[in-house]
Fold this sequence. Notes:
Layout: H1 28-32, H2 39-51, H3 63-69, H4 72-93, H5 95-124
GO biological process, one term: mitochondrial electron transport, NADH to ubiquinone
Amino acid sequence: MAEYRGKGPNANYFGDRPMTIHGRVAEERERLHGSGMTMDEREWREKWCKDQELAPEEPKYIPELDRLLTNPIQRLYKTPLNYIFLDKLGPVIGERPAYWARHIIPKGILGYLAVCGIWWMLKYNEGTWERQGGWVSKWSKPIMYPGDTQWPHRYEFPRQLYASKMFYERKVLTDVGYEGTSTYHH
């Protein structure tokens, strides 16, 4: 493995590349200057620029390469989606739309399920005074300064917005007196 030297144009890579792909005149200003490029360099750059264009049949899909680049777990969960979208739906709607549908529709379904799961957690797992877990919503009073329209009156929260964890809506222990003693006598 190459030793990282941390200098030069490739300092953000591990090791140094064997050569630059731009050649001696990477910047346009240097190329357009009268003595910047020789005719051989111009010819070489023209060939290099043409080499960067893809052929009409590129990029090619190579199944063996795809199999090598994905691990068994990825192949396991990709197989049914590839079968449905690429193998069955691809010939009907076209290869490119099937590819996009293969990637967008499952992610949309996962996003919808995530939103439903969060909504369910917020709705049915509310934090109450009877248990430790659950979601608790706490509200802060708005900041008031002298000169505000509500000054000097205090902002009154509705009782359900107190951080009481639904203690006031309880169905048990409703006979507790105000001093903390029960009204029930033995």
